[in-house]
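G., the chain you wanted modeled:
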Amino acid sequence: MDSVKMDSFLIKEEFPDLVLVPIRVEFSGLASLPVKQELCETKSDSSQPVSEIKAEHNELEIPQTELEFPQTELELPRTKELENVVDWLLKTPFGTLEHAEKVRIKSEGRPRPQINSVQDDAGRSRSFRCQWYERVDWLTGSAVTNCLYCWPCLLFNGFVTWTKSGYNDFKNMDRSVKRHSKSKEHVSAEVRLKLLGQSRVEHVVDEGARIQVAKHNETVRRNRAILKRLIDATTYLGRQELAFRGQDSTADSLNKGNYGELTEVIAHYDELLATHIEQSAVFTGMSEPIQNDLISSISLSVLEEIKKEINAAPFFAWQVDEMTDIGCRSQVSIIVRYVDEIGTLQERFLGLFDLTGVRDGQSVFKLVSTAMSEFDFKEKLVAQAYDGATVMPSELNRLQAKVREVAPSAVFTHCCAHHLNLVLSQGAKFITQARVFFATLGGFSSFFSKSSKRVDLLEETSSTATRWDFTSRVVGTVANNYTKLLETFSRVVNSEGMDDDTVGAASGFIRTLEDFDFVFMLFTFNQVFSDTGAAFDIIQQKAMDVTFCKNRIETLLHSAEEKRSEEAFNKIYEAAASLTEDPADRHLRKRCRQEGAHRDVKQQYRTLYHSVLNNLLLQIHHRYASLEETRFLELLNPEKFATMKSAFPDEALGCLNKGYGRFFEMDRLKTELQVFYWDRELHGANSSISDLLQSFKRSGLDRAMHQLYKLMCLAATVGTTSCGVDRTFSCLERLKSYARNTMGQERFKNLAVLSIEKGIVKALEKNPCWYDGVIDHFATPRERRADFIYK
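Predicted structure as tokens:
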């Protein structure tokens, strides 16, 4: 080191009795640095003390270096500035940081914050003991999310539960910790954390390795940025239910399909994407497999978001329905219903599943239980509905019984969004004659819905309004307008302005209306549907008054039983014979008929008549057999709040305790209900369940009256009154049309998720971290020709 030069004198020579105190000066690359040296007061042999001596030097002569030193530091959260670095890492992936930044985070160690108590599914408070940090050397946590995380897995992308969503099931803490410690992903993350920051041989020997890693990460950053543009194009087409591919997707094609054309439009305003399209030869992102993988990755991210919401909800219900698509495949949809964290009733779509060839209860149970295996349905499932699922009534009863074996609280309910007559007609199709009848009946609505000219002819003939919107109303429309329809079809046949297809169809309908079998089935179903339709309309309006609904169903069953009499059968038979030809007379005219042929023919129709009635009665009984179990809904019937203020509904509360008592603190709930009934400001006038949920959430009453709020969530979840399944199948018809009927099942299912849950997709697009999750899903299942994972 160069010596320090003094401007005026040498200290040692001038003051020989002083003891110089050595100082140490560290340099950080500066060319010059002002220095002040202070000499301490000491005793000498001289009688005169030296009070203070200072030596100053204007410059230190230090050789300058050519190395450039950074002037800024990494802005990482420190313990003094932020309570927990875990929250920062949840938003900023560890893999995107520079090597020095990673080493610095490792050196600071894992945070060990105090975690607040959380409530389990039963409402009990579960606390976390900090001694766990000493027992488990990889455990960390966040005081913001009140969740625990695995420190190595958080840094190196381990299990989602221990890295993204967090773990807060303190009841099963010991078992979960042991299971995670043995996992392959955790061991791998621990090894990578131990080696982080240590001198790696290839880096010491060859500086080129470090440069190669930096180059790789820069390529990954660029590839991920390009993939974000392709994700935006995919989500747009999926939300709008537009086709992706065209007939010719080559570079010279004038129409590369919506996906290719939309990507080129984006490239006009994005230099990065434009350069990629022009220069890339390895990964273009335009091929059909890449499109399928992008659709699948986005769909998976949406389903993960739904799973988070369901896991946070106290209860959920599922609804299964079936429909045949344009490719003659039986598609089963699964809808999940629950109340989310902000008090909004949600109905989420989980996918379409191919159930072609199987209709028994065991097959449907296996499909649904497999699809719901990732959800805690054994503990949280409180209702199940299968309206429209093509299983026999006896199989339907067996199906819901099998579900209750594993999920005891899953009461079977009828969805009020499905018209009862429509469900009954689907169940009756297992009778061969009924299936033929409804298939023929469907042609009437199709005939009039395809031409306004045909409708005008019908309206000219009939003065009453005709309803063709679904099967039950078509039965009543045809039965009540039988003569008018015959006149209309005759006018179509005799009209010179009608085309050949219309005339041929009208001629066929005339023969149908003159056929005894068709008219007999028409009048048989109409006499039942007229009663069930009226009963359903009343039950739909009085869904919260379970006692009233139960009495109405009993009246309906009694009325249907009366129609099984011989007098009722003869009335239907004679009415059909008066409009057509009696089949008994037709048989008598044939030769070689035995004595009693007249009785044999009529007996066949009597047997058919009773088969239809028995089928309908069995379906009604099965669908409303569990109605008594939902009597607890009367606790929240706004029409009875005034009455229940003076006479508490103990029977309804007992029903709740019997079916769902394990979810509630019954004494506390009864007290909260009594306060709720007495205070009109709490419930207002005729407030619906949805309104009450929102009101309680806004005012904070969900915490003050938490048991009552949980009851509202249960009532909203069990009372399946929405039309999510109808929304699902309207989407099915748009996605899989005549022009797109060769689509694979997996692509079809994923596109349906993007279309139906477009609200979730739009919300996720506003979060930049969501794109990283989609890209991770895209990159991990298989080896890609382009790099998307940081080193």
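Residues 1-15, 18-82, 591-598, 722-726 have pLDDT under 50 and may be disordered.

Shout if anything looks off.
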